[in-house]
Amino acid sequence: MTGEWPWPLFAVFGVELEYMIVERDSLAILPCADELLREAAGTTDYVQDVEREQVAWSNELVSHVIELKTQPPAASLDGLAGPFLASIREINERLRGRGAMLVGSGSHPFMDPSSDTRLWPHGDREIYLAYDRIFGCRGHGWSNLQSTHLNLPFGSDEEFGRLHAAIRLVLPIIPALAASSPYLDGRYTGYMDARLETYRHNQARVPSLGGRIVPEPLFTHADYLGLLETIRADIAPHDPAGILNPLFLNSRGAIARFDRGAIEIRVIDVQECPSADLAILAAIVAVTKRLVDERSSPYRLQQQWPEDLLADILMDVVRDAEQARITDGDYLRMLGLKERALTAGQAWRAVCEAASADFDAGRRWVLRRILDEGPLARRLVKAAGAAPPRKSFVATWRELGDCLADDRQFP
To answer: How many CA atoms lie less than 13 Å away from 335 in the CB half-sphere?
Structure first.
């Protein structure tokens, strides 16, 4: 314990993995998460959560997505692949009778959100209906995106500031490892991370909700509350009943959750298997720790970076992933790198080598595969092409389903 919140820096880890439910034969999305959760709970009533050992299942905005999350937060990322895989296999067995299965990747390649979207119709549905009324949720950025969330704790205001400064610097290069959503509407979008490219436009009607995705340089609880008050004021004309909570309306790529003493990183596409997700999370944690500990750059310099400069780097990486060229030598120096220019993939290779002692052999193998062959998005485009016929998508995503069930990397 270190003060205001339950856990100090890096004491626990909260991991959330989102998967889409699809028909096994056609790979079309299947909105049956409500029936799955009710059956697993063994009740006649619809539920929003089901608990398993170390992992809970829950609903999301739309009914074809299921979220698996650590419950409670885990003391280590090590060993988490097993509980997640056990839940994936149980869910797949329950879905078998419906001719369905879970599949990974950050977006469905040929979903039509205008016709395929079914909002969650139970429990907190009034919240989802409010979102739909204000923003219109039948679009890719709302209903066709699956992500991995990483929650990192802070135990005091000082720890919050250090953690937020570090995460802001790590965010721009995360898609170089994690991009897995190159396709929408049956074609390559031109973005390796189309999920983030569409997500950032979701709430353009109220710009303060998402900002530039990279959060503003705010390093105290009091300063951050000012941002939440701005969100509260800006949403009020659209939400006169006060249904929507500013804490959850905040849609930046990392959000401060003062209700639980954590920062939630949200710019990570879900991968093809839990071991890949957890290896990427381990890399993110390793570089974040080095920044928090001031091993790569002083805290006072980390605080000085405006969100606009970081967001420009992020957008390049959203488009080109590991091939994006970073020419801001000052930014690279924040990560402990001396080069004046590197690709995002080269930057990750350097920081992973510097932190190699933090990874076991299995994690090093998974990361080496990503660093050598590119993130999942790059491998998907190499396998399927820029505008493949529907049968190629079906074959490729069926393979992704097998990767998820077997906990192995694609291809």
So the answer is: 35
